[in-house]
Amino acid sequence: MTTPEPRPARRATTIADVAGAAGVSRQTVSNTLNAPHRVHPDTLARVTAAIDRLGYRPDQSARSLRTGERRTIGYLAPVDDPHDPNPLMAGFLEALVDAAGAEGHHVLLLRPAAGERHARAAIDAVVAARQVDGLILADVLPDDPRAAHAARLGIPFAAFGRTGPGLPPHWVDIDNAAATAEAARHLAERGHRRVAFVGAATPLPWLAARRDGFHREAARLGLTLVPAPADGDLRTLLRSPGRPTAVAADNDLAALDIYEAARTEGLHIGRDLAVTGFHDTPLARHLRPPLTSLRLPLRPIATALVTRLLTQLRGAPTPAEGVELRADLIVRPSSSHHPPSP
């Protein structure tokens, strides 16, 4: 039996092949890939068509050696429980990978080593190894040590969460107060006059902003704000004679607690009690009735973070302030009915 001779390996398409097919110089092909604004539109279209037709793929390793760029963004992922993952951050990571990929960059996940309390060592390791061009940080606090350390090292970074005084304002955040103010207006438009706001007793600035935004708007609208019990017992809140007809929660899991307390007290969500949440996690759509919730614009957030990071990498002028984005109120049956008559 004759053994067939192996086929010769197909030669990879080169930049010279593209230049010959398009009738341009290799420099024009390079400009098409790296500085398309320098290329005449007709030439740009011709070169792009040749790249697509020949299946040319730039040699990123050679480009990295030439320019010093790795085209890789480090994402310092928050510590999470794999058996109970944070659905919000999983969605954010998906959006971040897409936003980075649209700009020709990869995302490298970073995390402190087991037993490490701080992320400095993880940041130092990738900076020393020149593995990333810059960093994306999430859940950033005004005095965040990760942002401060990145600033000291001089590595570009962008933060999901506001950096404080003395740190570069390379941040993107949600206008949390405006979001919960919209929830208060929504409940008022449905005829609710007695409302409450429940959530975690925490100094986290975004949660405090949500509470303050709801309280201020409720007061402006002339609503009666029923205080949540200090011990967090929602059944006490719902069985009082002057109980609220609507309750806003600072996250969807807190809204789930309201659902459970209401059912224990014989109240029907959407008919006897309106409820709103925050984050619009998959939980919101699967509750019965489905939960009205404020949806974070994860893809615009990710795109804004990548844009702010690449602005630094390209040496362009950086904005003097961070950017705020708005959450969207997704109305569902948990708050769509008018309150019962007193």
Automatic annotation (TrEMBL):
PROSITE patterns linked: HTH_LACI_2 (PS50932)
Keyword Repeat (UniProt): no
UniProt cross-references to InterPro entries, sorted A to Z: HTH_LacI, LacI/GalR-like_sensor, Lambda_DNA-bd_dom_sf, Peripla_BP_I
Gene Ontology MF, one: DNA binding
Keyword Repressor: no
Alphabetic keyword roster: DNA-binding, Transcription, Transcription regulation
SMART domains linked: HTH_LACI (SM00354)
Coiled coil: none
Pfam family, one: LacI
Taxonomic superkingdom: Bacteria
HTH lacI-type domain segment(s): 13-67
Protein name listed in UniProt: LacI family DNA-binding transcriptional regulator
The species this protein was found in: Kitasatospora putterlickiae
